[in-house]
Amino acid sequence: YERPLDPDEVIALVGLEDKRDARVKTLSGGQKRRLDLGVALVGDPELVFLDEPTTGFDPAARRGAWEMIRGLQSLGKTIFLTTHYMDEAQSLADRVAIIRRGQIVAEGPPATLIGREPASLVRFRLPKADAAAVLGDIEGARQLPDGYVSIESTSPTALLYELTRRAHERGLELEDLTVTRPTLEDVYLRLVEEPESEAAP
């Protein structure tokens, strides 16, 4: 390479300091993935292609790889990342392209893609006998087999107010109450499962 990075710096960057003198065949699957990453970086490229870079990593190694990728971004490197981990794409990417059957079906910043999903998801646990009294005429409520109730809503504040008011009047608790926004994984699943004619450009 014309201007390689220092090998010790690369070894540290990919977290293989304790394996510096080990033969490749003695490395675990995750360590070999780190080595692949190090080999890709040692030439100090401006453009880096990373194909499923954290496959086989344990959670700590995966987070370490994310920090390394963010470090490369801060150095002005362009990174083309392919991944099946939607949380990885949501955390790292400036732009995402979702591919279905070889065609891009959606593209843009993760926040923009997620923002296209209008509804929040309200979930709580309530005994079946009490659920009918609390839910009443609330549209879209689904009683799940595990005892949870799930409701998609574009106005979660008003929904929460009504649910908690009704539960309070009856002396009930909405156990394990959560309100979540869609994730990039939710967007991905919707796009790959919907008919092609409905897929977003």
Oligomer: single chain
Helical residue percent? 40-55%
Give start-end ranges of low-pLDDT stretches. Answer: none
Secondary structure: number of strands: 8
**What is the overall pLDDT average?**
86
Main pleated-sheet profile: 4 strands, antiparallel
Strand content: 15-25%
End-to-end CA span: 41 Å
The radius of gyration over CA amounts to 23 Å
Adjacency order of strands in the biggest sheet: 6-7-5-8
Helix-strand makeup class:
alpha+beta
Order of helices and strands: HHEHEHEEHEHEEHEH
- Give the overall shape: elongated
DSSP helical segment count: 8
Written overview of the protein:
The protein is an alpha+beta fold and 201 residues long. 40% of the residues lie in helices and 20% in strands. A four-stranded antiparallel β-sheet has the order 6-7-5-8, covered by helices on one side. It has a two-stranded parallel ribbon with strand order 1-2. It is elongated, with a radius of gyration of 23 Å.
What's the topology here?
Elements: H1 7-13, H2 29-41, E1 47-51, H3 59-74, E2 78-82, H4 86-92, E3 96-100, E4 103-108, H5 110-115, E5 120-125, H6 128-135, E6 142-143, E7 148-153, H7 156-169, E8 175-180, H8 184-193
Parallel strand pairs: 1-2
Antiparallel strand pairs: 3-4, 5-7, 5-8, 6-7
Structural key phrases:
201 residues, alpha+beta, 4-stranded antiparallel β-sheet, two-stranded parallel sheet, 20% strand
